[in-house]
Amino acid sequence: xxxxxxxxxxxxxxxxxxxxxxxxxxxxxxxxxxxxxxxxxxxxxxxxxxxxxxxxxxxxxxxxxxxxxxxxxxxxxxxxxxxx
Length: 84
What we know:
0% strand
């Protein structure tokens, strides 16, 4: 995945999160997570290990925050259904 594709997907994820019915604490936590992903994307402008780090982050997040991981997974499924 190119860096531009990753940036576009993060923007769509952020837009999808706005449409979710979440309490303010969960929304803030997910927004911080997306911020962290965007920071990682910027830090790895060459894309070298970004995908590996995202996969590791996803696994850790699923263990630490299973409910939020389900919301995030739902957002990804919706993006995938839209062909993104």
